[in-house]
Write a structure and sequence with these properties.
CATH superfamily: Exo-inulinase, domain 1
CATH class: Mainly Beta
Number of helices: 3
CATH topology: Jelly Rolls
Order of helices and strands: HEEEEEEEEHEHEEEEEE
Number of strands: 15
Shape: globular
Distance between the termini: 59 Å
CATH architecture: Sandwich
Structural class: mainly beta
Number of domains: 1
Low-confidence stretches: 1-16
Mean pLDDT: 92
Strand content: 35-45%
Largest sheet: 8 strands, antiparallel
Helix content: under 10%
Length: about 250
């Protein structure tokens, strides 16, 4: 076998490690490059996950290439989510010591994940900067990305702040995230707010339906509970007010 082909196969298997399946209540999750367990936390059973650095290494000198990738827990019994509501309660802690200085408690959701993990959409938060006394940092609290072509750093370069935003979240407290997916749009609601905190007016992925996953990234200990998914038909929205030149 050609050495370059063999090396490519080794890299492929190293970065696509599907692990055990964990049952949490009536739901089951397949671990993709994360460790997971059901633990007692604050008096209740929750699902704890952390990124597995042995299965999916992190490189601080090439951050974008080794984050926002195949490290999540996949909900196994739903592979055709297209439009509807995804709701979950999540709690983010930072590992002690953190694996690198830029750790911000990355935690959130993947959706429309393809069977082979080749593409998906995502919205996640960086709770560490959600309430800091620096507006620039706050504006990086929420992140949308579309795998594989539009990770966070690429989006910052081609469309600064269009796919990021602020949200009043913090480390070491429960965050209720609700995402409303409708066609090419996604809206994120935090902690039962009446109005959305963050809007993706045109998602960038080509996949229209797929799996749902719970996501954590480098340095995060993530706790999850009360995941609820409701599929809905595509809703045709009326055109909103046109705004120019702000």
């Amino acid at each position: 076998m050609n050495k370059s082909i063999l090396l490519s196969l080794i890299c492929l298997f190293a970065f696509e490690s599907f692990g055990q399946t964990i049952k949490f209540g009536k739901q089951s999750f397949e671990l993709h490059n994360v460790t997971g367990s059901i633990v007692n936390f604050q008096g209740k059973k929750v699902f704890r996950i952390e990124r597995d650095f042995e299965k999916f290494p992190f490189d601080s000198t090439n951050v974008e290439k080794t984050v926002d990738d195949r490290h999540y827990a996949r909900l196994t019994n739903l592979n055709d989510f297209e439009n509807g509501t995804i709701e979950v309660k999540m709690y983010s802690q930072i590992q002690n010591p953190p694996p690198y200085s830029g750790v911000a408690g990355f935690i959130g959701l993947y959706f429309r994940i393809q069977e082979d993990d080749s593409a998906w959409e995502s919205i996640y938060v960086r709770p560490k900067v959600g309430r800091v006394d620096n507006q620039l940092f706050r504006n990086h609290t929420v992140q949308y990305f579309s795998y594989p072509n539009f990770k966070f750093d690429t989006l910052r370069k081609i469309a600064p702040f269009k796919y990021e935003g602020s949200a009043p979240v913090a480390l070491n407290e429960w965050i209720k995230m609700r995402i409303e997916v409708n066609g090419e749009t996604a809206e994120m609601f935090i902690n039962d707010a009446k109005y959305s905190t963050f809007v993706v007016d045109k998602m960038l992925g080509e996949g229209k339906k797929g799996y749902i996953g719970l996501y954590v990234d480098c340095g995060t200990i993530g706790y999850f509970k009360d995941l609820k998914v409701t599929k809905k038909a595509l809703k045709v929205k009326k055109a909103g007010e046109k705004v120019n030149n702000i």
